[in-house]
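Each letter names a residue; the fold follows as tokens. Both lines appear below:
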Amino acid sequence: MDALYRSVSGAAAGIAALFAPIGPLVATCMLFIGIDFLTGVAADRAAARREGRTWFFESCRAWRTVLKLALAVTAIGMAWLIDQCVLDFLQLNLARIFAGYLRCGVVVVSRKRRATLRRAALPLAPPLRPPPHPEGGGTMSHGLENRNPGNIRRAPVRYKGEVRPSRDPDFKEFESLAWGYRAIFVLLDTYRTRYGIDTLRGMISRWAPPSENRTEAYIRAVADDTGLDPDKPLDTRDRKTMVPLAASISRVENGVQAETAEVERGWALFAGGT
């Protein structure tokens, strides 16, 4: 047993001595990757607070970071071995070049990931469909079955009252219609406060873009329902404006009139900061 211990410890000491010159490179890369992970978590939490949704730590992100660290250390070590044992006569300093490339890559990927996170706060509505059933009969619409009257698509953004995981492969599912209406209010408020989209035309164009919808018809339908001017700024914190607007969006999405009591309950959840 002592012989085995001496062999293992000797081998470990030899490997450590071999790779000692690249210790600073490895430490620097680990620092960059660690900072990237921590700032990503901080950005996600900040977005959750602004949007009023529940945030929780996802262990899969930590495991991805561990995997990223392992791959980076392995790659730097392989580059060092190639430098020392294969291409030593060229003095290419491959380990330093790779470490610098890795650090730059982490910064670029981090920026792109946070841009994606910000865009994810604005999930797109589905294509405008004809009413799924005539008023007063037929099968309940897809959005109402999911208690998602705005047909908000699945996305990394999480809302309070959301069922996770959703049984629908494409759209979010909520615990009740009130939570679904609250999500509409949160999303429209995010359009205005975070992205400067403050008109009915701008909001519906983002909600139901022309690439996937009859956007102008959608805007006219909501404007007719609510009496709102499509090109005048809206106050997304005003109940008299937003309750009819959410109800109209629900009618267009689902083909039936919204239940005013449910829309009002959703507004109470939104306005109360729940």
Notes: Confidence is low (pLDDT under 50) at residues 116-138. The chain has two domains: 14-120, 142-271. The chain is about 65% helix and 0% strand.
